Amino acid sequence: MRVENAEQAAAHPAYRKALADLLLQLADDELCLGHRDSEWLGLAPDIEEDVSFSSIAQDEVGHAVFFLERLQELGERDPDLLAFQRPPDERRNAVLTERPNGDWAATIARHFLYDCFDAVRLEALLDSGYRPLARGVAKIRREEHYHGMHLSLWFTRLGAAGGEARQRITAGVESLWPDVAGLFSLGAYEAELIRYGVIACDSAEMHRRWEERVRPAFEEAGLVWPGELPLPERDGRRGEHTLDLQELIETMGQVHHLDPAAQW
Amino acid sequence: MVAETVTDTDHIPDDLRRALQEVKDPEIPAISVLELGIINRVESEKGRVRVEITPTFVGCPALDLIGEAVKKRLCRVDGVKEVEVSFVMDPPWTSDRMTPEGRRKLKEFGIAPPVEEGAGFGVHVPECPYCGAEEGEVHNLFGPTACRSIFYCKRCHQPFEGMKPV
């Protein structure tokens, strides 16, 4: 099903509902991770990583804004209000992206595992029948390519270095593993999203493609595959979140809440 | 003013083109928005001008500033009554949209122009904008703005910035 613009989507309520849910998943993943990236500002292990993570954060938040603007076209609220004023149960990010940064190595592991998933998801959206989404994805994919290169370099470098670096990245991967499978969920409207041709792959196929990308990197990094991904305790795509998200939303919105009507 | 519609940047009326040439990228003041290749389309009809701008990077924070500058400058052109600026993704900005003049000015400003398409996008160290050596190395894929990386020239021992090919 080919849908050229927001008006056509809005004319089909079931389609619009499924599409809006997916747009929130995309926006909320990028917004949470972008915010977590920005928390490294001034704290990253060296100044080059300060620069990298600030730049990556800016890209991710920019992508979130793009998806929120598509929601606004569908009749949802202003992007700032969607970003700052939605309660946790209306958020659709995967739980993995809301977790606090922790160790630098854990941050690298999370970003690498997420970027591999994001690459798979963007690929599945390249020919999306919702054309405004497909057009943005074509552009966003070119930017994410740089994140992928940077993070896979760090991931293999920390693993291959051995010693404390490998211990830390191994511990990072282990701590993240229970949340990873939550990335692949497409939420409450998976069947509709596939049927309407909004996305080309279901969650099982995305999981398979993700593993195809990630396993060789584990080998190159000299890391042991931690085993099958456990079923996630909470499905962030259905609004099930941890207190970490509550804390993230409060921190992220501190300036906004001082004066929600301010023009910046 | 004669009613006319323009759909590609090769045929922008001279007065509008001259005005756009004066609008510079706020982060790289050496080159204009035309030379940077971010003007997708200019339509003008009976004093109403519509401009489509395509961002270099989706999250470029300078975008609103650029839009405002375009609006302000075009409003000063004789016969222009109204200017509307919109941001679009289609066709997307790619680094090969920069004009040859833009590439030259960028280099003169001290930023290596993006390695041209065909090399594929990824890590391609451009020529050093200071000494022209080709044997530099990547210092950081990310730089002071989303669209730039940082390199190091092994011949003249200068760090330099380069625009990312996207």
TrEMBL record, chain A:
Coiled coil: none
GO terms under cellular component: cytosol
GO biological process, one term: phenylacetate catabolic process
InterPro entries documented for this protein: Aromatic_CoA_ox/epox (IPR052703), Ferritin-like (IPR012347), Ferritin-like_SF (IPR009078), PaaA_PaaC (IPR007814), PaaC (IPR011882)
Alphabetized Pfam families for the sequence: PaaA_PaaC
Name this protein carries in UniProt: Phenylacetate-CoA oxygenase subunit PaaI
High-level lineage: Bacteria, Bacillati, Bacillota, Bacilli, Bacillales
Annotated gene: paaI
Automatic annotation (TrEMBL), chain B:
Domain MIP18 family-like: 14-85
Superkingdom of source: Bacteria
Domain PaaD zinc beta ribbon: 124-164
Matching InterPro entries: Fe-S_Maturation_MIP18 (IPR052339), FSCA_dom_sf (IPR034904), MIP18-like (IPR002744), PaaD-like (IPR011883), Zn_ribbon_PaaD (IPR056572)
NCBIfam families reported for this sequence: PA_CoA_Oxy4
Protein name: Phenylacetate-CoA oxygenase subunit PaaJ
Organism: Paludifilum halophilum
Taxonomic lineage: Bacteria, Bacillati, Bacillota, Bacilli, Bacillales
